[in-house]
Amino acid sequence: MTMKLPLISLPILLIFFYHCTTTIVALSPAESPSEAQAPSKAKPPSKAKAPSKALPQPPAQTPVDQPLVQAPSLEPLVPAPPPKAPAPAGPNVEKILEKAGVFSVFVRLLRSTQVINQIENQLNNSNALTILAPTNAAFSGLKSGTLNSLNAEQKVQLLQFHLLPSYISIANFQTVSNPVRTQASDTYDYPLNITTTGNSVNISTGLVNTSISGTVYSDNLLAIYRIDRVLLPLGIFAPRPKPPAPSPAPVKKPKSLESSSSSSSNDEDTPPVAALDNLSGGFSLAGNGMASIGVAVVAAVVLVLGQSEIFIW
């Protein structure tokens, strides 16, 4: 018995090893990890039966053999342009005037008439502007009830009369042409004349004379100057009659028509006395001619008679 035990255990070990090898090869990748890692319990073959051949297993499909399905791309075919940087805002006129501290009445009028919105839109669109800002003392110098007597449109025109639609530095006031154009209606009802004397800038509206007393703010886009009187335009406080419309230019006639019309006009314009004078002049000339002819005839007759008398005698 001691000699047969090793001989019997060796075939069993070989069969067990072969069975484990075929079982591991037959495992497919689709099996769960728990099933793949679980140890297979192989039954020991009986001693009487010969080991059975393993059945051929179908080839396992690998992930490479399966068709790949791509997810739809979320990126747009045409890339969007980069967002534009917001345009830089222009200078804040309201804050500048409030910081100066002496323009509260002017700021209140700009707000109530919404002219401040027009100013901000112009500056945000890079449109230059010059503001002649009256101080609180300038408004106090007006007659009582002056502002209250104006309607909404007149208040807007009054404020726009203080706005020049360009940037003008102190040095450039010497080159402006009068009347200076403002943002009011026109230069006839709203004339503004600016003259300079040295470093002094004088302003005249026909009703008010003042000068620039200081610079509140100045850059390449906006200039704000301090004035000590409110600019009163003629169109609101002393309206003038409109100038007469220019007469239309005369239509030129052809020369033939001009000569005929001139002759006819001369005949028509000649008074009756002058016409009679012309006629008498004509008759006098004719009479003088006939008289000279008559004298010549008489002289010839006398000469002939004289010769006949001589011949008779």
From TrEMBL:
InterPro entries noted in UniProt: FAS1_dom_sf, FAS1_domain, FLA_A
GO cellular component: plasma membrane; side of membrane
Chain intervals for the UniProt region annotation (Disordered): 34-66, 243-273
Family per record: Belongs to the fasciclin-like AGP family.
One GO-annotated biological process of the protein: plant-type secondary cell wall biogenesis
Compartment(s) where it occurs, according to its Swiss-Prot or TrEMBL record: Cell membrane
Record protein name field: FAS1 domain-containing protein
Origin superkingdom: Eukaryota
Span of domain FAS1: 90-231
Low complexity: bias regions: 34-55
Topological relation to the membrane, as annotated: Lipid-anchor; GPI-anchor
Keyword check for Nucleotide-binding: no
Organism expressing this protein natively: Rhamnella rubrinervis
TM regions (residue ranges): 285-306
Record's function text: May be a cell surface adhesion protein.
Keywords, in A-Z order: Cell membrane, Glycoprotein, GPI-anchor, Lipoprotein, Membrane, Proteoglycan, Signal, Transmembrane, Transmembrane helix
Signal peptide from the UniProt entry: 1-22
Main subcellular localisation: membrane
Keyword Membrane: yes
